[in-house]
Amino acid sequence: MKIMFIFAGFVLMIAFCVISTSDIAQAEEVLGTGTESLLGGDLTDPEDDGDPESDSGYNAIFSANDEPGFGGGEFAFNVFDNRLGPSNDKWCCGLGGGIPEEGLHVTAEFEEMYALTHFTVSSANDVPARDPTVWEIQGSNDGNNWTTIFAHDGESFWAERLQVVLFEAGVDYDVQETGYRFFRHVTFDTASNPAGAYFQIGEIEFFGETGLTPVDPKAKLTTTWGSLKNAR
User: Fold this and answer.
1) What is the pLDDT of residues 174-231, one digit of tens each?
2) What is the DSSP letter of 197?
3) How many CB atoms are located within 10 Å of the residue 184 CB?
4) What are the residue ranges spanned by the domains of the chain?
5) Helices (H) then strands (E): counts for the chain
């Protein structure tokens, strides 16, 4: 009987370790580094023909509460330019006085509602202490009332510069049953906030379905995202 109790305790200990490990595991997927690691064909520019210099060819209207615009000295809309690199290929470096209570946010507005199926967020080219450490992806249908879809609170998850990381519904956040016309990335903190140039981000890609029912994984092979991902 004593042996049975010892064996049962051993099994419970293993189960506890497995459950604990799965709870703290990071599920997000690193796709690589550099522009070639971006998925491409996201909701903001399905045809990958947007011209950041003229702010034309995009399927979304962009806005931001810090440095709205492309180019012009590392402005906010550069996170949608389909390029990773220094200077005008990133958004940098934050408002004077530190990140405001509402965060630093950049928004893409669409004509249709989309259920967010996956997204990528990429690090910029330098100074890891500028990486967002507390940030969210939010959705809205009026541009005023926002719902948190994904939240990260902790250290930067990027291990390299210009690194592209993929987050998927059903793995990294709940499968979405609501569609939104607005999606935004909000940064609330970085390691260097509020000292000096304390914020930067390289690229953001949003992907979604107009239908609100979960998509059969096999169907991804026929979508723009599936075709691009499997071709890389």
Assistant:
1) 999 999 999 999 999 999 999 989 999 999 999 999 966 444 433 333 333 333 333 3
2) S
3) 25
4) 28-231
5) 2, 10
Q: What are phi and psi of 107, to 5 degrees?
A: -125, 145
Spatial contact of 127 and 199, defined as CB atoms under 8 Å apart: no
Amino acid letter, 211? G
Give the largest CA-CA distance in the chain. Answer: 78
H/E segment holding residue 63? strand 61-64
Note the pLDDT tens digit of each residue in 9-63: 443 444 444 333 333 334 689 999 999 999 999 999 999 999 999 999 999 999 9
Residue with tokens 């998509």: 215
Query: Considering only the top CATH level, what class is 28-231?
Result: mainly beta
The alpha-helical segments, DSSP class H, found in the chain are 2-24, 224-231
pTM of the model: 0.81
